Amino acid sequence: MKKTLLVAAFALAGSFAFAQKPSAGNKTAEVNLNFQTGTSAINYTLPAELRLRYFMSDNAAVRVRFGLGSTTDKTSITNGTTQSDRTEKSGFGLTLTPGYEMHFEGTDKLSPYVGAQLGIALGGKRNIEVTNASVANPNVGDIVKDSKFSQTDGSGLGITLGLMMGADYYIADGVYLGGEFGLGLFSMNSIGEGTTSRVVSGGTAVETKTLKSSSSQLFGVSTGGVRLGFVF
After folding, report:
1. Domain ranges of the chain
2. pTM (2 decimals)?
């Protein structure tokens, strides 16, 4: 039994000692490790994004990130003696981010790289609904005597262009941990026409249109967190 454990330990140590970086023709898949610290413990949330890479040569790779998601958030708002129930839902969202990486020699286990990427994000309509509302708009806090408030934003489109630098560390054959730092060169977001509806305590419904909106930004920084990846 002891010999078996000893052999297994040496095999595991050997896999860590001789972890190899990918070469031309290899493919990788990875997810973010989303750890969050709270008051009592460290929590982990499931990754909502997958990144795939293909190494065209030993030091050049093309990649693409896919992201899918939608959220529903329910909260209660207390304003004086009135308690309101607030529900926010975001429609189905999709992100697609192709990119290119140039890897440097590094070490046997460490693979540093730089690259560029273009991001495209499509977002479904977002809806905010408040019953027993004591605020006209929960986002700014205008006081009214509504019994119901709802706001629906139009569909969204976002485009980003950026540079990044990062590194992958191979902890075993075909398994690595990575980190990345990004510099955003340009980003643009637009939201389509939406509606705002109020039903006041007297039962009269008032509906208004919200105009399309757009914004843009030059330069910004981002971090990619810790990633776990596999070579196949």
Report:
1. 2-23+58-222
2. 0.71
